[in-house]
C-alpha cells in the first residue's frame, strides 16, 4: 500500500500554512446552509490534520473524521476541539454505526482514488452512511484544466522558528489513466543544528471530467445538485483546477 502522508504529515501544516482553512470552511458552511439547512452531523473523508474539523466544530457541527494516515490522525488528535472524533480507516471500507446529514471530502482527497473499484466503493460507502437526502460535497482535480494547463515542476520553501522545508514537486503524467503522479522530494533542515533530512513521497492524483462524475453519481445513486470552481464559485472551465461537486443521496 502507498505510504504517503507518513513523514509528510510532520511538515503538512507548515507546507500548507498559506491555505485559508477558515475561508474554505465558511464557503462549505454556506453551501450546506443553501442546499441542506439545519444539518449538524458531518462525516469528513480524508480529514488530515483536522484543520477543517476544528473550524466546523466552532460553527456548531459535530464531525466524524475518517483518515488513512495514523500519523495525520495523531496530529489531529493533539489539537482536537469538542464534538470531533477521528478514526484511522480507508474511506472505501470504513464503517461507522451511524448516518450523517453531510459527507465532506476536501482538498482533493477523492483524486487520491485512482482505481474505479475504489471510487465506486467509496461513493457506495458514503451513500450508506448518509441519511436520505444527505449531501456529499467534495472537490477533485478537473481534467479539462489538467489538459490545458499541464502540471509542471514546482518548488515550495517554508520555514518556522525550528525548521526550514524545501519541497520539489515533479509531475509524471499518465494520459491513459487520467493520473498525474506528483513526486515530492523533501529536504528538511533543523535551523539550530543544521541537520538535514531528505525523503521522497509519491502522490498519484486522478483527474475527472464532468461526464465521468455524472456516471459515478448515476452508478452509486446520487443526484448532482451543482458543480462550481472551489471557492470562487465560477463555472468550471479549462482554467479550473479544483471543481467542487454537491451530490444528494437519492
Ligand atoms: C491533501 S490531504 C487533505 C487533508 C485535509 N482534508 C485537508 O484539507 O488538509 C489528503 C488526505 O487524504 C487522505 N487519504 C487519501 N486517500 C485516502 C483513503 N483512501 N482513505 C482515507 N484517507 C485517505 C490522506 O492520508 C491525506 O490526509
Q: How would you explain this protein's 3D organization?
A:
The chain has helices spanning 9-15, 21-35, 51-58, 70-78, 116-129, 143-149, 210-219, and strands at residues 41-45, 62-67, 84-88, 100-105, 130-142, 154-159, 163-174, 179-190, 196-208, 222-229, 242-249. Strands 1, 2, 3, 4, 5, 6, 7, 8, 9, 10 and 11 form an eleven-stranded mixed beta sheet that branches. It is 28% helix and 38% strand. The protein is α/β, with parallel strands linked by helices and 250 residues long. Helix 5 (116-129) links the parallel strand 4 (100-105) and strand 5 (130-142). The structure holds S-adenosylmethionine.
In short:
With 250 residues, the protein is α/β, with parallel strands linked by helices. It has helices at 9-15, 21-35, 51-58, 70-78, 116-129, 143-149, 210-219, and strands spanning 41-45, 62-67, 84-88, 100-105, 130-142, 154-159, 163-174, 179-190, 196-208, 222-229, 242-249.
Amino acid at each position: 500500500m502507498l505510504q504517503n502522508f507518513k513523514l509528510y504529515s510532520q511538515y503538512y501544516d507548515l507546507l500548507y500554512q498559506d491555505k485559508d482553512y477558515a475561508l474554505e470552511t465558511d464557503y462549505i458552511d454556506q453551501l450546506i446552509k443553501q442546499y441542506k439547512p439545519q444539518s449538524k452531523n458531518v462525516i469528513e473523508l480524508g480529514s488530515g490534520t483536522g484543520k477543517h474539523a476544528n473550524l466546523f466544530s466552532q460553527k456548531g457541527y459535530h464531525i466524524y473524521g475518517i483518515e488513512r494516515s495514523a500519523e495525520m490522525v495523531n496530529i489531529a488528535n493533539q489539537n482536537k476541539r469538542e464534538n470531533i472524533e477521528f478514526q484511522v480507516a480507508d474511506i472505501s471500507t470504513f464503517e461507522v454505526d451511524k448516518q450523517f446529514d453531510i459527507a465532506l471530502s476536501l482538498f482533493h482527497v477523492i483524486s487520491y482514488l485512482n482505481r474505479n473499484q475504489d471510487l465506486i466503493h467509496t461513493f457506495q460507502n458514503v451513500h450508506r452512511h448518509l441519511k436520505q437526502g444527505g449531501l456529499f460535497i467534495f472537490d477533485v482535480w478537473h481534467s479539462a484544466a489538467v489538459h490545458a494547463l499541464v502540471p509542471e515542476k514546482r518548488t515550495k520553501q517554508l520555514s518556522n522558528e525550528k525548521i526550514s522545508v524545501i519541497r520539489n514537486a515533479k509531475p509524471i503524467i499518465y494520459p491513459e489513466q487520467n493520473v498525474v503522479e506528483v513526486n515530492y522530494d523533501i529536504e528538511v533542515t533543523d535551523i539550530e543544528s543544521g541537520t538535514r533530512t531528505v525523503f521522497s513521497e509519491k502522490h498519484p492524483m486522478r483527474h475527472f471530467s464532468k461526464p465521468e462524475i455524472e456516471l459515478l453519481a448515476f452508478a452509486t445513486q446520487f443526484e448532482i445538485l451543482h458543480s462550481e470552481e472551489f471557492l470562487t464559485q465560477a463555472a468550471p472551465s479549462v482554467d479550473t483546477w479544483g471543481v467542487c461537486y454537491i451530490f444528494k443521496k437519492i
